[in-house]
Each structure stands twice: as structure tokens, then as C-alpha cells.
Design a protein that fits this description.
The chain has six helices and five strands. It has about 300 residues and is of the alpha/beta class.
């Protein structure tokens, strides 16, 4: 179908508007990633402090009652997205979570979800979501989300007494090559190897650690800190990889728009040249016709 210069001009204007939106989304993805990366690094210092406290407790008190209670139910926390334009980010994670849950049918599984898009992806796989949380809109919201999740896990644990629960985190994190890598981390109960290492590890200091709280209460407080730090880091990593996925998609979209713009501009130049050539031919034909009429007179 032949196109006019006017229609091509409208299409170019429309594509330029789309390119502006894509470029804005690309810039926002780059800007948003940096604070989340800093937050993920910052929480590591707090987590190290919690593990040092756990080391001090276990090195002096020995085994803690209740630390090895078997889990009657499991909880999986899935960190997804509340916004689109990030490819199959949520769908890919939901498939891995579904495979992980179906691989162990012996225990009841409670699914906690972050992000409406992730909830939809999980529901598409017939995975029931008990509660969905809003993802943080900024770095300040990561602590709020981690606190809400910690409180929710406490409520579930109290409802399951005298049995304990197992907690697993599912999210995408950065890999060494800069790509996103699936992480399914078993958070609770504590890794027996970690507990054993902390108990046997020598306490390097001029003085022995001292604590006034009952060992069981202090252990629960440290576990809560470990839980909070792990949830905080997972949320920050998920936001970094979400923005990275959106950035990659926007880069592809920007290239596609640029290619389409180049094609439209090329069509415009060709059509303009064709119209100019047609007009010149009309002028020449008219001129020749006038010459013949003059001669005949």
C-alpha cells in the first residue's frame, strides 16, 4: 500500500515519542539500580554483626534448646515485581518456585509473595499465595518490607507451635558475570554446618563474650536479626536484578525503535525523491509540449 509523506511524517513523530518513553524507562532503570546495590552492600555489615553475636553465644553457651526442632511446615518467600516491562522476569522465577515446591510433597507449603505481577505468575501455575506484599518504591521501603515479612513469619511460627517452620527465599540475584542468577536459599532452620562451625570456631579476643539475657531469648533475638538481614538483602538484590532486566529490555526496544525510525526516514527520503522526480518530469513534458505548439504556429 502506497504511503504519503504526511502519513510517514505522522509515523515518524509517533515513533520518536515511543523512543522518548523507552529512553526515560532506560534512564530510570539505571538510576534506580545504584541505591539498591548500595543497600545490599550496607546490610552485609549488619548481618556480619548478627553472625558475630551468634558466634559469641554458641561459643560460650553450647547447644541451644529448640535450635534443632524439626519443621512441620515450610514457608517460601518469593521476591517478584509489581511492574511490567521486565520481560519474563516473574514467569521464569515462578516456574522455578513451582518446580521447587512440587519436588517435595511431604510438607505443607505457605507461599508469601512480593509483587502483584509475581502473584499473577504464581496463580497461573496453580500455586496458592497466602499473602502478597507491595515491593518497596525506594530504598527506604526495603526496611519496611523486611519488618513486615519478619513479623509475618513470627505469626506463622507462633501458629505452628510447638513445631517450628522452615523458611526459604526465592529471588533473582546478580551473578559474578553480571547476569541474573536464580537463588533459592534455605534460611531456617539454621544450616547445621553453620551452627557447628560457629560452636567450634575459636573466639579471637582478649576477653570472653558476656551476655545477661537468657541464652534462649538471646538466640531468638539473633535469629530474628539474621532473618531481617537476609530478607533485606534478598529484597535489595531482587530490585537490582529487576531493574537490570528492565534495562536490558529497554535497550533492545530502543534499538528496535531506532531501526524502525531509520527505515521510516529512508522511506520518506525515497518517496520525497520520487515525488520530486515526478514533478520535474511533469515540468519537462509540459515544456516540450509548449515548444511543439510554438513551432506549429
Amino acid at each position: 500500500m502506497a504511503q504519503s509523506l504526511e502519513s510517514l511524517s505522522r509515523r515518524i513523530t509517533s515513533m520518536q515519542g515511543i523512543r522518548g518513553v523507552v529512553h526515560t524507562m532506560k534512564s530510570l532503570s539505571v538510576i534506580n539500580s545504584a541505591p539498591y546495590e548500595q543497600a545490599a552492600r550496607a546490610i552485609e555489615a549488619y548481618h556480619e554483626t548478627v553472625l558475630t553475636g551468634l558466634h559469641a553465644l554458641l561459643s560460650q553457651s553450647g547447644p541451644i534448646k529448640g535450635a534443632g526442632v524439626g519443621a512441620a511446615a515450610r514457608v517460601i518467600v518469593v521476591f517478584g515485581s509489581d511492574h511490567g516491562l521486565c520481560g519474563n522476569y516473574n514467569e521464569a522465577l515462578a516456574e522455578h518456585v513451582g518446580t521447587h515446591i512440587k519436588s517435595d510433597t511431604d510438607a505443607e507449603t505457605t507461599v508469601l509473595c512480593i509483587g502483584a505481577q509475581m502473584e499473577g505468575a504464581l496463580c497461573d501455575l496453580d500455586l496458592a499465595v497466602e499473602e502478597t506484599f507491595f515491593p518497596p518504591a525506594s530504598v527506604d521501603g526495603i526496611g519496611r518490607l523486611a519488618n513486615l515479612l519478619t513479623q509475618k513469619l513470627d505469626d506463622i511460627r507462633r501458629a505452628r507451635r510447638p513445631h517450628d517452620i522452615s523458611v526459604t527465599l526465592a529471588y533473582f540475584a546478580r551473578s559474578e558475570q553480571g547476569m541474573q542468577a536464580l537463588r533459592i536459599d534455605a534460611l531456617l532452620p539454621l544450616d547445621p554446618d553453620l551452627v557447628r562451625d560457629l560452636q567450634s570456631k575459636r573466639w579471637v579476643s582478649r576477653s570472653l563474650p558476656h551476655f545477661s539475657m537468657p541464652p534462649e531469648d538471646l538466640f531468638i533475638s539473633l535469629i530474628r536479626g539474621h532473618l531481617f538481614a537476609s530478607l533485606f538483602r534478598a529484597a535489595a538484590e531482587a530490585l537490582v536484578t529487576e531493574n537490570a532486566a528492565r534495562l536490558a529490555l529497554m535497550q533492545q526496544a530502543e534499538q528496535s525503535v531506532d531501526d524502525r525510525l531509520d527505515a521510516l526516514k529512508s522511506d520518506t527520503r525515497a518517496l520525497r525523491q520520487s515525488e520530486i522526480t515526478t514533478e520535474l518530469l511533469d515540468v519537462i513534458i509540459g515544456f516540450e509540449a509548449l515548444k511543439k505548439e510554438t513551432r506549429s504556429e
